[in-house]
Amino acid sequence: MSKLNVLLAGSTGYIGVQLIKLLIKHRHINVKYLCGNTSVGKDISHYDKSFINKNLPKIVKFNKKFLKDVDIIFTALPNGEAQDISKHLLNKNTLIDLAADFRLEKALEYLKWYKQKHRARSKIKNAIYALPEITGKEIKKFKIIACPGCYPTSILLPLIPLIKKKLIKIDNIIIDSKSGFSGAGRNVHKVNKDKNLYESLSAYGVGFHRHNSEIEQMISKYTNQKFKYIFTPHLSPMFRGILSTIYLDLNKKVQVKKIHKTLYNFYKKHKFVKILKLNSLLSTNDVINSNYCKISVCKTKFKNKVILLSSIDNLIKGGGGQGIQNMNILYNFNINEGLK
Q1: pLDDT at position 199, please?
Q2: Count of structural domains, the chain
Q3: In the predicted structure, residue 196 carries a pLDDT above the cut 90
Q4: Residues with catalytic annotation?
Q5: How many angstroms separate the CA atoms of 289 and 146, rounded?
Q6: 216 and 106 share a domain?
Q7: 9 touches 324 (CB < 8 A)
């Protein structure tokens, strides 16, 4: 089988670099173009020494002429830029976006949460919010694949099966998430220059973090009831990883064991979601450098309450790995390809 040619725009950011590491291990992929702006002319090994002698192309400025030479375009760019690229897509191209440009189904919602007008409104109908374990082969109908944000990935994977089965109350969901600072991008040290990122824990986006938009959009698909939740993200003194702690009230006659069994049965055929034994402790260290989401169901001192722990690597399952997982589904590759 001939290899698919890939263009990666936004190749020097944390997610871009991680994506390259995965793509070069993929047997069916040839990295044709690496694109950047301030990095034009440099070797990608300038940003990660592991790329030395990997025979990767030099970084070039994106040109729409490149699209005729590639099958897949991965975009790991600042919000808004993938919208511009989408206007030039050819019939042979599939766009897999790792930013927020096509995650929201309504342009007005994008304006509300991202404070900028959507520049490719006509393309939204061609896009799908692609959480692989949930959307599956449905993505084959779309030319633009919008990969979920890192926080929503860790939150929606444990929540959606329970909401679908009507096992939990949805008027008082509390979500506490902690992320490594790589989730804020390479400028994190400039933006937080007055904070000691390595020795402090800080909350941010309290009450109004942009990822609320994805959580609201997806939960609303599986319930016709009004739901209320609070999501608070935190920046932790570690480079990578996310741990989300989710506090839930159970519906009447629902026991914690039912929650655990439901999640286990829902994901038992899915390679990259692992439901741990009841009351297991969980840390980011259990998923770092992998495409896994690991979930633990924990009892509390109250019979009608349960705590879910959900952990991912924000740069892989919450970033490049999820993009490759979607690509594997789209092209009928082995789901493990590039992700072992």
Answers
A1: 80
A2: 2
A3: no
A4: 150
A5: 22
A6: no
A7: no
